[in-house]
Amino acid sequence: MSFYIKLMTLNTIIIDDSFFVRETLSKMIADSGHNVIKKYNNGKSILEDLNNINADVFFLDIILPDLSGLEVLPKIRERFPNGNIVMLSGMTQGNTVAAALQLGATDFVSKPISKDQLSDLLSKFSANVSIPSVEELSTIGVSTFLINMFISELAAHASASLREIIFNQARSILEYLNMNYSEMFVTDLEKITIEPNPELWGKYSEEEVINKLAEIPVDLSMEVSFLYPEDFINDLYDQAILIMASRSKIVKLFELVPPSKIGLPELPSIDNISDTPMHSAGTTFEELEKAIAISAYLAGSMGPQILANIDAGLVDEHIIMRNAIFYSTLSNANDENFQEGLFGPLPVSSTSEESLSSLVYTLKMRTVEDDTPALIMLTFYFTPTAEKIISNYSRLSFIIKTRLANINYAEELDRVFIRNLLNDAINFILE
Q1: For residues 164 and 117, what is the distance between their CA atoms, to the nearest angstrom?
Q2: How many CB atoms lie within 10 A of CB 301?
Q3: Which residue pairs from 36-40 have beta carbons closer than 8 angstroms and sit at least 24 positions apart in sequence?
């Protein structure tokens, strides 16, 4: 079963309200040998122009100033049923990814996107793979194709280390099949693919072959679960099947061979998409605000003192006090070589059912009374919900350093300043 592959130059469109993102992404696309034919800074403008453009790839931001990307996405998909729509976002909440893929997104990328990641993505799109029609394939042929596709997507959306583990385990499973069921399957251990052996017909029933194929994703999940939590693997499996299900040609194959028949996760339901928290961009800021708290403490001769504590419901006072002492010790504030810097993320035990993590920035500031240096501990607390959103901790470090650049005295670090810093951080994360 072979597929015709033709490399092509892609025409792309970028929809993002950040000038920096538009220009950076545009340059990376050009460097990859493809074209950017138009850029938009809001959802309304792209929708008004849909009938006047023709593109192969759309890069669409989730958070736009007028409409959310999830509202714009179906309109683009309707106009370009075979186009590649890549959702961009600074957050990676599972329900957001699910909603985007269910609405027709081809892929979902967290910002900031790297040059290598973009190049790989565009290379995948530029290889115009022509999938045979359902009529041209047997049930067994469709099953092997879907499993090959699933392993590929599973690896594509895993971290580098996990990707290598997936490939190694998949290769081991296929090698076992090659040794024991060579009359059923032909395996390629280098490409990590499996195809039906033309000699299997007449020797094995379709049910026997399908049952053996169904063991592949189940065995793979079991092997990887020895190293990673089961929930983590299940989320990865669900994400891979969501991405496959977003492609109309693949869904047609699923009509012939349901995923569960060959050991893959069930196809997701597209019901109640409007109920997902990220469907409306207007609720995003509020959700993040509830998931992140910032506190600041002054560690001086009088011991840790709370200068500001936002959202006391998220962080208990005794946790703030205890961690102020802990981080003061950690930072070696009395050392002449003390350097301000970022610590974290560090686990913080909590009396609440949901555990907290913290990201701490330390610096020395003068006090108004005697102009002596005092240690300030500025801490971001976040729940696991926020932890998923904050994919790059250095971005928060950048915000902290930038906003504190003009602050000289500890007394200037008041509640209003902390509140503004929280707002800045959330807006930066959502860019």
Answers
A1: 16
A2: 6
A3: 36/12, 37/11, 37/12, 37/13, 38/13, 38/14, 39/13, 39/14, 39/15, 40/13, 40/14, 40/15, 40/16
Neighbours of 378 (CB within 10 A): 21
Domain boundary among 130, 152, 183: 130
Alpha-carbon distance of 157 to 109, in angstroms, equals 10
- Residue 343: helix, strand or coil by DSSP? strand
Note whether 27 and 75 are same-domain residues: yes
pLDDT tens per residue, range 27-46: 999 988 899 999 999 999 99
Q: In this structure, are 269 and 315 located in the same domain?
A: no
299-338 residue pLDDT tens: 654 445 556 656 556 777 767 776 766 666 666 555 555 5
What gap in Å lies between CA 336 and CA 92, rounded to an integer?
41
CB 69 within 8 Å of CB 100? yes
Question: What are the strands, taking DSSP E only, across 190-348?
Answer: 193-196, 292-300, 303-309, 341-348
| Residue 77 near residue 85, CB atoms below 8 Å | yes
Instruction: Identify how many contiguous H helices and E strands the chain contains and give both numbers.
Output: 15, 12
How far is Cα of residue 177 from the mean position of the Cα atoms in its chain? 33
State the Cα–Cα distance between residues 236 and 228, nearest whole angstrom: 11
268 and 144 in a common domain: yes
Distance, first Cα to last Cα, the chain = 44
Q: State which residues form the domain around 287.
A: 283-430
Question: Within 13 Å, how many C-alpha atoms sit on residue 336's CB side?
Answer: 0
110, two tokens: 């967290």
Are 271 and 287 in a shared domain? no
Q: Which amino acid is at 110?
A: S
Domains identified in the chain, total number: 3
Residues 41-93: pLDDT tens digits? 999 999 999 888 888 899 998 888 888 888 899 899 888 887 889 888 765 55
**Which residues on neighbouring strands pair with residue 158, listed in sequence order?**
none
- The reported pTM is 0.45
